[in-house]
Amino acid sequence: MDNKKNEAICRRDDDFAKWYTDICLKAELMDYSSIKGFIIYKPYGYAIWELIQKEYDKKFKQTGHKNVYMPLLIPESLLKKEADHVEGFAPECAVVTKGGLDDLEENLIIRPTSETLFCELYSKTVKSYRDLPKLYNQWCSVVRWEKTTRPFLRGSEFLWQEGHTIHETEKEAREETLKMLKIYSETAKDFLAIPMVTGKKTEKEKFAGALETYTMEALMYDGKVLQSGTSHYFGQGFAKAFDIKFLDKDNKWNYVYQTSWGLSTRLIGAIIMIHGDDNGLILPPKVAPTQVIIIPIRQENEEVLKKANELKEKLLKKNIRVEIDNSDKTPGWKFSEAEMKGIPLRIEIGPKDIENNKCIVFKRNDYTKQEVSLDSNFEQKIKQILYDIHNEMYEKALKNLNDNTFETKDYEELKNILNTKGGFVKVPWCGDLKCEMKIKEEIGATSRCIPNDNTEDKCICCGKKSKHDVYFAKSY
Amino acid sequence: MDNKKNEAICRRDDDFAKWYTDICLKAELMDYSSIKGFIIYKPYGYAIWELIQKEYDKKFKQTGHKNVYMPLLIPESLLKKEADHVEGFAPECAVVTKGGLDDLEENLIIRPTSETLFCELYSKTVKSYRDLPKLYNQWCSVVRWEKTTRPFLRGSEFLWQEGHTIHETEKEAREETLKMLKIYSETAKDFLAIPMVTGKKTEKEKFAGALETYTMEALMYDGKVLQSGTSHYFGQGFAKAFDIKFLDKDNKWNYVYQTSWGLSTRLIGAIIMIHGDDNGLILPPKVAPTQVIIIPIRQENEEVLKKANELKEKLLKKNIRVEIDNSDKTPGWKFSEAEMKGIPLRIEIGPKDIENNKCIVFKRNDYTKQEVSLDSNFEQKIKQILYDIHNEMYEKALKNLNDNTFETKDYEELKNILNTKGGFVKVPWCGDLKCEMKIKEEIGATSRCIPNDNTEDKCICCGKKSKHDVYFAKSY
Fold this sequence. Notes:
2 copies of one chain form a homodimer. Chain A is of the alpha+beta class.
């Protein structure tokens, strides 16, 4: 029965896109609403997001950031103040033209991102270097009208956090940009068991209004890459457009240096596509709303439910998120449901197990079963197995990433790898948009990030002297 | 210096409305945005909301509720499905007519509340009594286009939670409605130190689409009353409009019985207007982002800052939210700032105090000072004082409520009380809308809630046999 396909969902290798949406629906993560691109986050999906939020929020607060809440709507004129920014977002705007039965004097845009609102606040409230830095963050939903939408990966509405900080010096702002990228990727590793590739975006791929955009990118099971979080250095561009000035220590007026950084419910998509398999979702323990499910065997036997409850209480005391499935379904059915929902660890307990003072522990990630004694070490042992599951899942994802990260200096090989295996391919590049576009048009792959400069080689495309190495990949 | 007025804000008794907005701004709870009725929740104000959220969310989860997230936008046709509901909300709608440069085929409404979205989901997903109850809740912002707006009290956008539940039987749904009202008011007491008056709304004042609305109402310092949370029993009205049917235990089709309940950032307004004074905000300890502020006296003395940090570490270990103000302002200035922000407890520590192994503890709520020894009992003593502050604040608010809750059977007296003292006035009422409207028009007071039936008296207005007692008050 191990690795047997769950009939409710499509096989990963048959149709990865269908497998993905099957899981979204069958694991009850989400449902569709009647408006395209606006999904319903059902309890199980939202609980995963709450855990992601809680962990990142803790990290943000530990590094001095404070949460705020800015208005949902942005006056059209405010959004237009920074030229590159409005050019990037105008085609995706949802526009409010009526309020309370009347036509509005000025159109209002549902925030696609809130740089402009933060800038307006900062320009009102910052006067002196003593007011700096401001390290603000906001958790909210944003709206970007998308033509092609997929649950969690690309929606017309999605949930995210957006950090917006202003600083006295360029150095400090640049440090913040990189610090947040590091927090993003380290937490992805430690909490979501996802190894990230990080680096700088090319000019073409950077955020509308940023001087530099840093990104973390993750490799999915199908060889395609998902942008999973970005951190932007704005320099003084917005500060000048919005007149965010302060008196510095030498009593001179200066513009602030600014950053912003965001990650979203996309991470749920990454978890599904990196860790899931043909039987459903596989959740890393730390982000699993239910970490342990206890399934009683022959539950009509009073002793069995009593023991199951006893084990539950023991695990609850150790802050393990545990549930008993004592519904009137068969154990086999319960196993399948728990596997579909990706619950990391299952405990089976029946009369014979109780007799022998043990239970059966099943690991969702590798389908192994082991006997665990119900002695005084029980809770500790379960904790240890959860810990192991996290590490095994991370190692497996890392191995897949390493096995599918390539390097070449030959254009035909680049094409061949991307069209057959997928994955990341590192190539030398001259930095010219034309070469980047050629690869996009001919191979259908985009530059994901620049891991380092490289002036030793020749551009894979035009043969001129290279400036950087750059990762190309097909992407979501 | 005790009770001395802080010059930065208006006196409560001079102009209560101005005093209120002064505090909102000077305590840095919020700021205005460029759109009327859309406020910015600044870090200190938002931190208060996060604490309120956390506490209520815990209570909701303990009683089996699960969080979800529904779309921001509602198709106009969906909002129109329940006749009373759309009539109530249509005049307040913000309407999206364009998305991604194109005119939309159907207008979309920014959610003013999400009954219709939950109904749509439930009608799709519920088929059997086994699927019931569904106990869902959502934390989000909603938009209702308001003509007159005030920070936290009435905004075109505000933050809230909305619970939406469906049940197999009327009995269960009615119990849920009352259970949530109880959780609302008990948590207001235990967490916010606010005594609530609870009861049923009249037909006129109930929620658009509800069969019954229950409310908790709080008395502000100025004698006016603030509706602070409502819980609605819908019966099967929405279920029939949205076709939410299930096969019951007898294998017959039946419509579900439904509730919804909501509370909002209005509670921040209640905290300000109930507890605050002429020197600023006064926060009940449990909802204070900073519970204790340590202000070093002669901080240029190294020993002083060292000791201050030592005390901070001790309190942190007891999970007390504590900060040191070691800025270069004078102690007197720091005192004023901490008072403005309503920090419940201030510790002053200087060289002489260290010599005597003690500190000075100042209670924000009653301006008393006491010496507290820095011995091994220190943390416990501080915890106890915070605990006392909560109780004292609640008792003070309760006394004010009791002192300003009246009862009369005489129309002129009702008028006189409401026009001079304010407060709640309990009167017998026939249940007729005409009498309710007469009081509203002649006295400017509205029915707040029905605490109990009363068929023993005569209606205070028309003299016919009474049906209920009802509380009248002037209100926000």
